[in-house]
Amino acid sequence: MAANTITRGRLRRLAEVRPERGRVLSVFLNLDPAQFGTPAARSSAITSVLTEAAHRVEDAAALEHDEREALKADLDRVRETLGGDIASDGARAVAVFACQDADLLEVVALSHPVDSRVVLERAAYIEPLVEDADRERWLVILANRRNARLFAGDGEAFEETDRIEDDVHSQHDQGGWSQARYQRGVEKEKDDHLTHVADVAFMAYKRRGFDRVLLGAPDELSGQLEQRLHSYVRERVAGRVHVDVENSSADDVATAARAAVQDWRRGCEREALDRLAEAVGRGERGAAGREAVDEALEQARVDTLLIAEGYEDAEPAIERALEQSARLVVVRHHDDLGPLGGIGALLRY
Length: 349
Fold this sequence. Notes:
By secondary structure, the protein is an alpha+beta fold. 44% of the residues lie in helices and 22% in strands. The chain has helices at residues 8-15, 33-36, 39-59, 65-82, 130-133, 177-208, 219-228, 231-234, 250-282, 290-298, 315-323; strands at 24-30, 93-99, 104-110, 117-121, 138-143, 147-153, 158-165, 212-216, 237-240, 286-288, 302-308, 327-331, 343-347. It has a five-stranded mixed beta sheet with strand order 7-6-5-8-9. A hairpin with a 4-residue loop joins strand 2 (93-99) and strand 3. Helix 3 (39-59) packs antiparallel against helix 4. The protein is globular.
């Protein structure tokens, strides 16, 4: 199955699907390899979620006969879709949206696991897609005195894109004038190597584009490498990884990078929550609780919408936030929004 990734534009288009008749069937299937790494486990998960979907369609109230028949046809289309090789592209979850009355069949691959679930409403259930729609592109730069490796990814999956090996001699301690000159030569070779790495990283930025950078280098080289990076690359440095540059496998690097990305996201959530607390405390440019946030959304004042993970009835707020191009933050690592009813907003004015 060719499952497409989500973008903000596509998320907005899904949010706008509201058929005059019938319902939208939203089916989410968890493909976390830690739980569903084998074909048998995935088959069992698919059977379970399709059984739940069939019950939802059968039990749906206030549907006319042709609307129910359309939903049954939608369920068949979802069943056919999930019957393909859904795990072939490395997705950690898949969302399928179907509505015959709106001529809708959308398949979205997610890079993070979500709970398997079925939602049957008058609009697509899009809250689990928000994180992927705003997912940033990452570059990992690993370097020691002689070698370097670059990895690109979305914060969850990474692939090696470049490998560098320069001719840098080893240091030794024989002493004397010739040794001092030799040491200067070795340092020059090392500096040239770091400059080479920085140049390749800048070319990767121009070729692929990325939003954030992780650096992995011995402590004595890390600062030197960062200083040599082009300013466009340097300003995107978001953290460090600690792996063996030459001997770590691609999986080792991806595991370390994912942990660093999660640390960065946790920090971003913390920053947004602190800004919200300060704004609400001052009584300006901050809204806390559903009523206050709804009023701000109605006035198109929302700059950043913050929603606790699992917040009930998030869809209307997310849809209106998308309409006004607001930033969306699903808070997964902190509990600050609990006392605020699970929702808050930073305002434009």
